[in-house]
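Job type: complex structure
Entries:
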Amino acid sequence: MNNQNYRIDWISVIIYFCLVSFGIANIYSSTYDENNTYLFNFNRPVGKQVLFFGVSLMSALFIIYSPTKFFERFSSLIYLIIILLLIGLFPFGSTISGARSWYVFGGVSLQPAEFAKIAVGLAVAKLLSEHQTNIKEFRSIGQVLFVILLPMLLILLQPDAGSVLVFGAFLFVLYREGLNHLYLYLIGGLIFLFILTLIAPIPFVYSALITFLIALFFISKKMNRKARFLPYFMVIFLSSAYVYSVDYIFNEIFEQRHRDRFNIVLGKEVDTQGIGYNLNQSKIAIGSGGWNGKGYLQGTQTKGGFVPEQHTDYIFSTVGEEWGFFGSALLVLLFTILILRILFRAEHQKNVFARVYAYSVASIFFIHFFINVGMSIGIVPTIGIPLPFISYGGSSLLAFTCLLFIYINLDAKRLNESNL
Amino acid sequence: MMRIGLLRGVTVIVAFLFLYKLLQLQVFNSNYRVLSENNAVLEIAKYPERGFIFDRNGRLMVSNQPAYDVMIIPENVSPFDTIAFCELVDISKKELTQNLIKARRYSKRLPSVVVNQISKETYAKLQEQMWKFEGFFIQKKSLREYRVPHASNVLGYVSEVNRNDLERDAYYNLGEIIGRQGVEKSYENKLRGVKGKSFLQKDRFNRIIGPYKEGLYDVTPVPSKDLYLTLDSDLQAYGEALMQNKRGGIVAIEPATGEVLALVNAPSYDPGLLVGRKRSSNYTKLANDTLSKPLFDRGLLAQYPPGSPFKTLNALIALQEGVISPDTKFTCNKGHYYARGAFMECHCSYGTRNDLYEAIHESCNTYFSITYRRIIEKYETPEEGVDQWKEHLKSFGLGNYLGYDLPIGRPGLVPGANYYNRAYPPGQWKAPTIISNAIGQGEILTTPIQLANFTAAIANRGYYYTPHFVKRIEGDSIQKNFTKKITSIDPKHFEVVIDGMEKVIQKGTARIARIPGIEVCGKTGTAENFTRIDGEVVQLTDHSIFVAFAPKENPKIAIAVFIENGYWGARWAAPIASLMIEDYLTGEVKRKWLENRMLEGSLTEEYLKPVSGKSFAINE
């Protein structure tokens, strides 16, 4: 570590410590019990989190001292182990709140899905850094997609839809590494049409779609006389079919609770007692914080336990209530800085493996950050995934720590690529 | 470049989006703060114990008693021995089951009442066995406890606030107690104190989990104050006993101070009836008794023609106006013609010549009729005369509310020129037209407390203090000013009238009211009265009236007694008044024969006459 060429990204490490300590403070507040104020009571959430913080720190040290080559070399093995662990859940796993996602031994429960993100990140980095892989070819795309989709499928079967969505992060990675623009347009277009279908009347969506594409056709016809109508027609046909099926699936196949989640975020429905209760209470908690917040351990929403799952998925509402706009904005900034920092440093990597991995880390953080905070303030439908380093959860803290520190390990040696 | 920039761009956009949304939620929208307070902070009121009420001698009349409600929190209830429970608190199994279902339907987590107001004895028994009934607990509340079975009309009662109270006074909240009648109402602010507040933190099940901000915003309640009434509890009780089976009122006042010693309404009721489990059925019974009207406080509300006692005032006014002197004599021929063809009867024998003393103790109608005529005709027009007369009466507190400290009252009526100009064509009425006023029998109406009050003014030789019911308030002063009011009659004129009133007892109409060793001054009255039966005006038996004060020098008590349909004044009113005076001044009643006659005497049959549906005879 004294090696001049080994430069640890101290800023990321400091942000990491800030986030985890802030997280523990907020878990302490969310689960505050006057009769039980001791921080290291391992029967209480905050004690467990502190314990896992210790374990995470040891793992982080272990990772930093590991040889950098180790991760590239053993990425396939790690991936294989994770896949086996995911499969092993079906016979051996325990069901907690409806999903068979956990291994429980002696009071400690672990969630392999959290670690699957690391494994997929390593595997994708490994695949893309190999010379024979070319992201422009269908065969390579197929390989990469298989690596990503296999754990997604296994997790979906648990079922844990929230964690599945996180793997969408790899789309950013693949795009960065040269995936055709068309895919991005396609997915962007699909998401746009999806939302449009839900908020706008269907006839309007159809007519807007057709008008837009026909206009596009005539514009390109003017610019390029060779443009043919058939592909445009195909696009019109397929996207209309897509809109129709979204509409159909949403109204006929989705259960009411799924529809409600979307409708509440889209503002089409107001329901503060039933399905909208969580979001409404979370917004009340955050909204009542004002500029400075109500003060640490002073949040009335938090003390009264009005926000369900407040120490896990809705931890941001505690931050909003007790630390106010300044606290929440600071948290948003810390995450933004961390993500941007990883992204910038990734571009300075000459090693493809390290770069792709760094990109995966940043993308995963981004998705978690976006969905979790977005859900707490009512921008994103309710999807239960943790806020990295902040939310209560041993597996999640340990997995995110490993995810980050593998990046730090790889990043530390970037100036010294020839040694790899 | 686009490939590298995409995620960076998206991250920055999301960061700004979040900051914008956070600003909007936290800073620019203040609704959420209110919502969170409604959500999580419970404000509960802390009530000071309601003040006690004592009589003038410090005897406790009203205090508070604990009442116990058996409550449950349905989700905490585990199976229990229902039969044992029902036996313990004395309710039926069916009732218990119904209440349990009702409680569960209301809320599983919030407390509900299962058994209302169990007795102290039941409470003691239940308390020992409480461990058998999980999820049950006993909530204490405070009710009024009446230590005396009388004076309900003065003490009044309390009840839960209603919608009107809530709209009128923002202090009150639903379910709170407010003084509804009597001193409970007029001294509500003193008796209740000022409630405090404490703020509690709730959780999402609405359960209380502790003080909010360690009680930083709590407000301590202001303690209530005890009242000392002017009533003499024993005298009040004696008055109510004397009045049983009669209808009417007694008002006794201490002339030197205006303190009301007794305010008896008959029929009366035990104030304890309006407390506890049976409150509402008892109240309904009292309110529905439209014949004897126990809730109608006759002493303050009943407006009767004052009858002969009113002659004393006319005498004083005539003396003040100088239209007669004590020696002026008029001849009575069993009455006299006050106008052509209009004869007013009198019980004097033919050819009697009365001076003022004799006129008062013999209650000569002729004398006062002529006197009254002289008062009215002293001025150029009857309008002026009658208004002058009215001014004198107003100075005795007639024709208006007296300003005492109970919430109800009636002004009575003193007719003036305006009144008669409305009743008759202007210029078409003269003194003979309104001559009945001379003997307290015309349009004039008074309440018993007004009678007692002018008697006190006569006893004081020319002034009175506003009558009142509260002597002092513990740790506070009485804000209302019960000041001295001076009448328009020169003090020197009173002795003549008082001498006449003394003769009434010594050798006049009220010899039955004589008390050995005490100089009593009084005046009897017998007032004609009418009612409507099936639309026809029917005359009923006369009201029996008596006003008195004693002793003659330095008087301690002035009293007015009014017995509905009691016939002549000396029959009921005078004996009752004299017994009251004797009891108050000597502390015991020696004339047991008279006392027994009054206690046992009943007018029930008399009161049944007009509602019997048969024809009946009066004044028999």
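Summary: Chain A has a mean pLDDT of 86. The two ends of chain A are 16 Å apart (CA to CA).
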